[in-house]
Amino acid sequence: MAPKRRAKVIVRTTKKVVQETVQVSVVQPPAGDNGEQLETLKTIPVEDIAHEEERIITEIPVEGILKQVHPGMAISSKAMSIINSLMNDMFERIAEEATKLSKYRDGKTLSSREIQGAVRLVLPGELGKHAVAEGNKAVTNYASHSDKRTKLN
């Protein structure tokens, strides 16, 4: 019997920005020109603590890919958790680097060029070159497969 599939785990973390106004009054205010007491109020705004941050974690179907490549092998839930953490971390690093590259050329859209550059920057040496080659191969296969599907319809 096949193991039960775990549902997608979506974790959203948010940090609230707090802004407070504090009124400070002096206990013994200095005397005015005609001997009357002056009350001083001072408003001190508290600086923004942090900007709102949202992080979505999705589970990647590693088990299905493993069954395609090695049908007799299995993976433990702990190992699956580690692989998912690794994949999410790498995705975030590549996306962040691609966003920086996109901002350098004042673009608002991520193109394949930024993704390739980010992969080369994040993954060192030969690993980056092989990753770019495999990515190009996957995109070519996808494009040729989608062309065949559109011709059938």
UniProtKB/TrEMBL annotation:
<dbReference type="GO" id="GO:0003677">
    <property type="term" value="F:DNA binding"/>
</dbReference>
<protein>
    <submittedName>
        <fullName>Histone H2B</fullName>
    </submittedName>
</protein>
<feature type="domain" description="Core Histone H2A/H2B/H3">
    <location>
        <begin position="51"/>
        <end position="121"/>
    </location>
</feature>
<dbReference type="GO" id="GO:0005634">
    <property type="term" value="C:nucleus"/>
</dbReference>
<dbReference type="GO" id="GO:0000786">
    <property type="term" value="C:nucleosome"/>
</dbReference>
<dbReference type="InterPro" id="IPR007125">
    <property type="entry name" value="H2A/H2B/H3"/>
</dbReference>
<dbReference type="InterPro" id="IPR000558">
    <property type="entry name" value="Histone_H2B"/>
</dbReference>
<comment type="similarity">
    <text>Belongs to the histone H2B family.</text>
</comment>
<comment type="function">
    <text>Core component of nucleosome. Nucleosomes wrap and compact DNA into chromatin, limiting DNA accessibility to the cellular machineries which require DNA as a template. Histones thereby play a central role in transcription regulation, DNA repair, DNA replication and chromosomal stability. DNA accessibility is regulated via a complex set of post-translational modifications of histones, also called histone code, and nucleosome remodeling.</text>
</comment>
<dbReference type="GO" id="GO:0030527">
    <property type="term" value="F:structural constituent of chromatin"/>
</dbReference>
<dbReference type="InterPro" id="IPR009072">
    <property type="entry name" value="Histone-fold"/>
</dbReference>
<dbReference type="GO" id="GO:0046982">
    <property type="term" value="F:protein heterodimerization activity"/>
</dbReference>
<dbReference type="Pfam" id="PF00125">
    <property type="entry name" value="Histone"/>
</dbReference>
